[in-house]
Amino acid sequence: MRKRWVMMIHLSLFLISSTIHALPEDGSCVNYDFSAVMDKQGVIDTNQLVRVLRHNAPVYPTANSNSPKKHLKLGKYLLPVQVNILQKRVQVRKVGIRAPLGWLEAYDLLCVVTPLQSKKGLDRKVFIKTPDSHDPNMNTIPAYPSYQGACHGRCKQLSRFRLYFIFAEDKVNQRYLVSDNHTLEIDPPPPLVGWIGDANSIPWNTTLGLRPREEVERISLAPKVANHERTGIELGGGNIWYTFPIHLPIIDINKQEQLYHVAAPSIGMQGFKPYNGNVLAAMKQVDVFFLLDGTASMGPYIKAARQAAQDIAEKLRKEPEFKETSFRFGFRVYRDTYADSILRECQQGICEGMPLSSICKSDRHTTDENWQNFTQRLSRVQETRNDNDDYPEKLFDGLRQAIVDMASCPKVGKLLFVIGDHGDKQNEIPQDIVDGLNYTFDRAVVFFIQTPNKSHQARTSYAYQRAYRSYRTQAIKILDKTLPIEFEGRKIARTKYFLSLNKTQLPTSVVEQVKLFSRSDFINELEQALAGGDSLRNILNRSIEASGMPILYWKWLEDTACPVLGEQCKTIIDHRVIDFYIPVDKTKVQEEVWLTDKDLSDWLSLLKPFENLIGDYK
After folding, report:
1. What is the three-class DSSP state of 459?
2. Are 515 and 501 in contact (CB under 8 A)?
3. Residue 590 φ/ψ, nearest 5 degrees
4. How far apart are CA 64 and CA 267, in angstroms?
5. Structural domains present in the chain
6. Beta strands, E only, 341-440
7. Which uninterrupted H or E stretch holds 165?
8. pLDDT of residue 398
9. What is the pLDDT of residue 405?
10. What is the pLDDT of residues 547-606, one digit of tens each?
């Protein structure tokens, strides 16, 4: 009991002493009370995530260490393990991993999952306030990766008329940490937008809004300051306002002058149209297909392919970064024509397989069923041996069949792993294979994996070596004909798509390649940046080097998004958001209480416990 009291006293001192630091307090773990989820030994038992609230936050190996062992980026979500009161640090671990990752400063972690509250008990919200410029590229405000310091090429650029919720505040540096989600306690966890300056924001600490009445043709909004460089705008009336997610937020009402103080986009009605939030949804669907050489000595690699798929299905899907990614699996086995007389499934050396389903929309049940069928069918595949085998295999016919097997759902990204040791008898690459890989799918890439050279075990070493060399030669030729040469001036190296692996390396390498093309959390961050108004081109220039993603993946992103984004592919959305004034006139405007469908659902949930109380007061 005495230990418990000592811990509570230390915790109180922690909360009091933290106020002297010029660091984020509101929203951070500095002022967070973990006692309700902490045992007598100080160990925290909770599923509520904490988030890193600045870029490059140091992670220390011990609570008192001064030398960080690594750094984490803004928004990384973790689970708290324990608190060191005296050092003002929190030990954390990754989701799904029991071993602690290390210790972070309490002020580098966000502990709240709902917005900060105003003095009136309302969620604190802001709209951005953009600069006054005729250059669209200057009509943005930065969302910083930290509560202090400059951008250093990492700022998101915000320009869209969009509502943000405040989750942390640094009063010294006058910055707010914002998200475009009302709660962070959803699955998967939404990304954080970043830190915006107080001078670049229009606080909305009410829940009041307005719109022109249906029967009014138009209303005029104007800046209050005389001779303001910006001109006023006119907004039309009518039922079109019921299609907009955000109306005019009332910042304040000047009762003496009878003026509404509102925020609005200077471009007029266009600025109220919602952003299409599913521009990159197709990038969260990934088909993984294996084309396997089924001849002698390939047995361990068939098992390794099955292990790689198992790691993706059972482990990767559970990692937070891939939680929204939908994976489908398929395979095809190729041999040589001798196999036709050994296995009834073989025709001209093309044998067992599992084509991809024609059902493109995947849910949990469908993906689980696909995975179970894949493992069952692949487990029945056995290597075959023939003393008259002349080493070259039916690689090209295998590729032809794989293209057919993968043809369903062409808008889903295709990752084809070809695993073998010997090339085809034919030296020249057939054009129909090149065309099939280039034009059958919206996005497809081939990884050629060559197993180790075992010419010392061959009956005819020279013939073995020639067939072995032809596999690499043919693979590189196919990659030259199917991979783009470059993207945005950056070369796409063919060698990254040709791998020499043994049976131990293969599962890990396949999973790592799949990771690079399938992160759903990364897609969510890109969607959020686009929703803020930034152009895809700006996002690419800012992120292409720092992300560690393949150059080819960035080309896929542009090819997928630009037909939908239109001008926003290359140009920032120019909403020119500022504050305006409009006379109070109930005949022209309709006051509203601003609620989204999510807010309404929240209110209904809050009121549900009281639904049976009416009878008690009759």
Report:
1. coil
2. no
3. -115, 115
4. 54
5. 2-110 (2.30.30), 113-267+592-618 (no CATH), 281-520 (3.40.50.410), 523-569 (no CATH)
6. 350-354, 413-420
7. strand 163-170
8. 93
9. 96
10. 788 999 999 999 999 999 999 999 999 888 888 899 999 899 999 987 655 666 776 777
Alpha-carbon span 273 to 532, nearest angstrom: 13
> Rounded to an integer, what is the distance from CA 67 to the centroid of its chain?
31
**CA–CA dist 220, 213 (Å, integer):** 13
Residue among 261, 356, 246 nearest 579 (CA)? 261
Token duo for residue 504: 């131990």
pLDDT for residue 543 is more than 90:
no
Q: Higher confidence at residue 341 or residue 249?
A: 249
3-state secondary structure of 155: coil
Which tokens sit at 579? 């504050």
User: How high is the pLDDT of residue 284?
Assistant: 92
Give me the pLDDT at residue 7, please: 40
Instruction: Write the pLDDT tens digit of every residue in 364-382.
Output: 888 889 989 998 998 888 8
pLDDT digits (tens, 9 = 90+) for 220-235: 888 765 444 446 788 8
Under a CB-based contact definition with an 8 Å cutoff, are residues 453 and 468 in contact?
Answer: yes
Residue 4 pLDDT exceeds 70: no
Q: At what angle do helices 431-439 and 461-482 cross, to 10 degrees?
A: 40
CB-CB contact of 178 with 124 (8 Å): no
- Strands 194-197, 175-179: pairing kind: antiparallel
Cβ–Cβ < 8 Å for 501, 301:
no
The rounded distance, in Å, linking the Cα atoms of 131 and 194 is 19
**Which two structure tokens, joined as six digits, stand for 237?**
């009336």
Q: What is the pTM of this model?
A: 0.83
Cβ within 8 Å of residue 406, ≥6 positions away: 287, 289, 330, 355, 356, 414, 416, 440, 441, 444
CA torsion sign, 446 to 452 to 456 to 459? negative
Write the DSSP string, 481-492.
Answer: HHS-SEETTEE-
- The count of other CB atoms within 10 Å of the CB of residue 240 is 14
pLDDT at 1: 45
Can you give the pLDDT at residue 326? Answer: 92
pLDDT value at position 18? 40
Residue 252 forms beta bridges with which residues?
A: 261
Contacts of 461 (CB under 8 A, 6+ apart): 455
pLDDT of residue 314: 80
Provide the 10 A C-beta neighbour count for residue 461.
Answer: 11
The CA-atom distances, in angstroms, between 387 and each of 58, 348, 383 are 61, 18, 14
Q: In sequence order, what are the residues at sequence separation of 6 or more whose Cβ sits closer than 8 angstroms to the Cβ of residue 554?
A: 487, 488, 540, 544
